[in-house]
What we know:
Number of helices: 5
Transmembrane segments: 7-28, 34-53, 62-80, 92-114
Membrane topology: Multi-pass membrane protein
Family: Belongs to the UPF0060 family.
Number of strands: 0
InterPro entries: EmrE-like, UPF0060
Protein name: YnfA family protein
Order of helices and strands: HHHHH
Amino acid sequence: MTTARIILLFVLAAVAEIGGAWLIWQAVRENKGWIFALLGVVALGAYGFVAALQPDANFGRVLAAYGGVFVAGSLAWGIVIDGFKPTVWDYVGSSVALLGAAIIIFAPASAAAAPE
């Protein structure tokens, strides 16, 4: 159940952060109005709370792993929401980022411990 929780929290964090940034982008770059910016700020705040719910107590590790999820999630958002056409290199880079995230967050407890 922990693995499912970790993945779900990363997905929710990605939707909140990427969605929030997209809403602000729409307000500033596409002149959609300040309500978009306000909703973006709320979504970005929600991202911070969702990220804090991860079971790992190490802020740096959680945020480093989330970086890989953010890369892949941003490309997916662009494809679904903005009609972005990724290249093979976008897919390769996204896969590498996700692999790095998985290595960081799912490392065995003994390997994840800081050296003394």
